[in-house]
Design brief:
The chain is of the alpha/beta class. It has a single domain, classed as Uracil-DNA glycosylase-like domain (Uracil-DNA Glycosylase, subunit E). It contains nine helices and six strands; from the N terminus they run ααββααβαβααββαα. α1 runs antiparallel to α5. The longest helix is centred in the middle third of the chain and has 18 residues. The protein is globular and about 45 Å long. The protein starts with 8 loop residues before the first helix and ends with a helix.
Length: 206
């Protein structure tokens, strides 16, 4: 009989990333995290996921629970997943920056530079076939990381498009999406997100 609690190699590697982030005292966000009794937010979902969603940085709800996208934006993301018959357990959700920036401000270039190697490790461990970026920061980071020619273009131009590239483990597709938080305040963006998510069903079948 297989021990269901036995950790896989991927589990162990991701747990090691979490342990290292806990001790990341060189981060400019470390003191803020410890003073507020926040958690680092590494990610959540299947370690065998075909789709990996990447956001920008955790907000207060996320930092208090250690879970990504667990506030209003997260509820919208759940709805988007349900619209294509997926649940959180079927995908992997993470952010570039693993600690909450104060006042929910945008992550700084220095923070992205410090935390992004952890995300790179996560991508190589999970080996998703599709990377769906949520928002302009994660989109731009992923486009630059994989040297895609679309790097530098706006999210308004690239959302819902399939961009093909290669990783160390094989071919993947990058799929830029608007951040769910933006859609909370703009009804037209929510409609756009819903339509773009429907396109994912076609991408999944490729």
């Amino acid at each position: 009989m297989v021990n269901k609690t036995q950790l896989t190699d991927r589990d162990k590697k991701l747990k090691d990333i979490l342990n290292r982030i806990w001790q990341l005292k060189e981060s400019p966000l470390y003191k803020y995290r410890t003073e507020n009794h926040y958690y680092p937010v590494i990610g959540e979902g299947s370690h065998e996921a075909r789709i990996m969603f990447i956001g920008e940085a955790p907000g207060e709800n996320e930092a208090r629970t250690g879970r990504p996208f667990c506030g209003a934006a997260g509820r919208l993301l759940d709805q988007l997943l349900e619209s294509i018959n997926l649940q959180r357990a079927d995908v992997y959700i993470s952010n570039i920056v693993k600690d909450r920036p104060p006042n929910n401000r945008d992550p700084s270039p220095e923070e992205i530079e410090l935390y992004s190697p952890f995300l790179d490790e996560q991508i190589n461990i999970i080996q998703p076939k599709i990377i769906a970026t949520l928002g302009r920061f994660s989109m731009q980071y992923v486009l630059e990381k994989f040297n895609l020619p679309e790097s530098g273009q706006t999210i308004s131009k690239l959302h819902g498009r399939v961009l093909k590239t290669k990783t160390v483990y094989g071919k993947i597709m990058v799929f830029p999406l608007y951040h769910p938080a933006a859609a909370l305040y703009t009804g037209s963006l929510k409609e756009t997100l819903m339509k773009d998510m429907q396109k994912l069903t076609n991408v999944l079948s490729e």
